[in-house]
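#struct-help
A.M.: can someone run this one for me? Single chain, 291 residues.
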Amino acid sequence: MRIAIIIPAFNEENLIALTLESLVNQTFKATQIVVVDDNSTDNTFDVAQSFVDRLPLSVIKNQSSAVNVPGAKVVNAFKKGLELVDLEQVDLICKFDSDLIFPENYLEVITARFRSSAGFSVNSSEKIGMVAGHCTILKNGTWEIENLNNPDHIRGALKAYRVECFQQIGGLKSSIGWDTMDEMIARYFDWSVVTIPDLYVKHLKPTGAAYRPKSSQLQGEAFYKMRYGWFLTSITAMKMAWNKRQPQLVLDYVQGYLKAHKNGLKPLITEDQGRFLREYRWRGIRSKFNF
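D.P.: on it. Structure tokens below:
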């Protein structure tokens, strides 16, 4: 399978070398890698450029805001890198963060999982659209799973898509919540989203560490754009605030949702997709309470 990897990077001169070194050491090699230096003010570009003789790598620059707003900034940088990729010449398209260390067999394992599904194996009817391992973060000297999401959710830091799935879902949305919308739309079109147990990637910076404080309200806005509805938004807001051990976030999320509603923002998924998403979420909630 041919893999194209796009890595948006903003002020990552101290970490991106670790990410690229881990890609150099993969047992299954990528066909193409694009690093998008997203208006960095440090030496990110030069550090990434130093790997061009060791990887099938292109390093480009993108002009954008210096404010690290979740969602739009990273997706727009990804789209800039996507301009260099011919999707007809690759099987998988990956969006990876620039602060990850991959185990040496990471690409080998995910490609094997993709190959096991329809289109690559006569023994399977499964239609796998997305595959990933799990992010871990360093806590008290131990690498622990980054506990922010459900086990059936692929973190935005390490997305891998079958090209046909990527095209059917319409690519990535330039909004916070893009990494939930992509999965839900994929499931809506009957693609499977697979996370692989015991396949761990070291995430060197906790998710959201560089976001500005007001960005938390954008999460509530994302719930509105994904057609969660008021009740599901409230439950999800409480769960996320609990997982982050920051109860004050509940108010931020709810305020963001109400503000989006007041301003009449346009949802980013269709009514049918929104209904599918809500049903999927409620099934998950009911399963945890055995009813």
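A.M.: thanks! The chain has a mean pLDDT of 91.
D.P.: also worth noting: The longest helix spans residues 271-288.
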